[in-house]
Amino acid sequence: MKEFDVVVIGAGPAGYHAAIRASQMGLSTACIDAWVDQEGAAKPGGTCLNVGCIPSKTLLDISHKYASAQHDYAALGIQTGKVSLDVDQMQARKRAVVGQLTQGVSGLLKSNQVTLITGQAVVQSATVVTVTLPNGEVDHIQAKAMILAPGSKPIVIPPCPVDHEVIVDSSGALDFDTVPKRLGIIGAGVIGLELGSVWQRLGAKVTLLEALPEFLPAVDAQIAKETLKTFKKQGLDIQLGAKVTEAKVTGQKNKKVTVRFEQGGESLEASFDRLVVAVGRRPATEGLLAESLGITLTERGEIPVDDQCYTGIGQIYAVGDAVRGPMLAHKGMEEGVMVAERLAGKKPQVNYDLVPGVIYTHPEVAWVGATEQSLKAADRDYGVGVFPLAASGRAIASSENEGLIKVLTDQASDRVLGVHMVGAHASELIAQAVIAMEFGTSAEDLALTMFAHPTLSEGLHEAALAVSGHAIHVASRRRSKK
Prior knowledge:
Elements: E1 2-9, H1 13-24, E2 29-33, H2 46-51, H3 53-71, H4 87-111, E3 114-118, E4 120-123, E5 128-132, E6 138-148, E7 152-154, E8 167-169, E9 182-186, H5 190-201, E10 205-210, H6 221-234, E11 237-240, E12 243-250, E13 256-263, E14 266-272, E15 274-277, E16 281-283, E17 316-318, H7 329-343, E18 357-359, E19 364-369, H8 372-377, E20 382-388, H9 393-397, E21 404-410, E22 416-423, H10 426-438, H11 443-447, H12 458-467, E23 479-480
Parallel strand pairs: 1-2, 1-6, 2-3, 6-17, 8-15, 9-10, 9-15, 10-11
Antiparallel strand pairs: 4-5, 5-6, 7-16, 12-13, 13-14, 18-19, 19-22, 20-21, 20-23, 21-22
């Protein structure tokens, strides 16, 4: 029986970060992962690298460049001629990016002396893991400690059975070999909006059916409203309060799917060439834990843990999409590193109040901390500073002046409680807010900090100035709950 100090189950962002850091701390470490390519070779990286973050961002980048070449370059004096799309080449580019990065993770694990084991793992006890290898053989592994990072998988809903041809999940929507003329997407959350943006830019007529009556309810309401307006202007047909009741595939050679849904008390239907089910993800914990282990999953399939990701059983920890909190790669990464360091005797913590969220559309949406609606619900006295990117010199010069940046503060202390933005490169700009808030900054601190000009990041500076009514480039006003 092989023995290790630490066994990590899952080689996605949470898992491979945990494994590498554990090995760096001097612990003998193995990482077990079931992802393989068509030839049976290991493909570490989990959902994020294989069918999530990386391939979707590759397609988002390609589709944005394609749409810009079609619609925006001429106004800048760039004449491109007729622009055409090679879907096969686009998908080849996506596969190349994924291949490069999964190979990179393999290299990182190897260079950090992590033993990568390919197979399906089951935790039998607090110290024993069995692994079913690709050839059917079963290995037994002894571990002093375990870190469970199995990741997540798409949620399937009964009205829309996925056939992986006409009705697909989010993974299937990354692999279309042609651009559908009419694309339906169930769910207008992060995944639905990103996938919808890709195929809409490439020429599909996209309709998103969202069961909730509000658009992006977890996002600051002002940002969500601005975002909805922008997406509709781009051509995305976003139907709120649309509860899908049935999806039926018809035809033989030219298959279509008819979706029936309820909206505003009416029964309606729509027809699409392809349908994407993007209603969220759930932990991939089914079959992971032996019943005798004593860990009871939640109704959502999550592994219960405390703030340090400890399960309460032996030396078993769980991180990433398998536990409470947002299913975000960066959150899982930090949890994996935290647990590895705790196993080595250190006392790190993850600040769950400052987990940034991003939607990688164009413009991008990003946020961290409290929303204005959450501050109102908590009856907090707060200040607000807003800067529209339409007043940003760099945004105007770059033809990317849609959106705004918003800063929320505690009225008494001036401490920044939340930062929200919609605009170009928001995924990069939000890091400034996270760093500032991690150090307990005030709006005045940001206002007194020198930002380079002309930059998009000046928008954060102006929004901070606006909290106290001192913004230079917009008519400042100070707003609060009362």
